[in-house]
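Regulatory protein RecX: structure, please.
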Amino acid sequence: MNLLARREHSRHELLNKLGRRFANPTLVEEVLQSLSEENLQSDQRYAESLLRQRIARGYGPGRIHRDMRERGLDDETIDKAHAVVQPEWFALAEAAYARKFGNSPLPGRVDDEPDPDFARRRAAREAALKEKAKRSRFMQYRGFQPQHFHHLLED
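Here you go.
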């Protein structure tokens, strides 16, 4: 009960934590079953809470799904949590992108000033491509799919 008083836990998390503290796995399983029956522990409630928390931190669907699977939640529970919360991934991707990179356009715009120097144009193109790749990697690391953020990287 002390663990559940602090925050929601998945059944898997509680099983691991209590299994380390107590040697009798049968007793631990009975206690977890009792908590579930009394609705003091709910994987569904935990999934919704975790989803909202990860969304607030600016994570995308891929990263959130992976985090939820690591915490012992099954796909059905994860899908139900998404149905309840109904996140807008495109808007969340735009917010995460803006928080990290602001409203600044990609640097190295070659079309702004025609430069007769081929080497400088090439260097500007390479700088723009590197920055675009960096921003794309950041968004993918956050768990967003390319369709969620691709329009943000367009010139």
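Notes: The chain has a mean pLDDT of 87.
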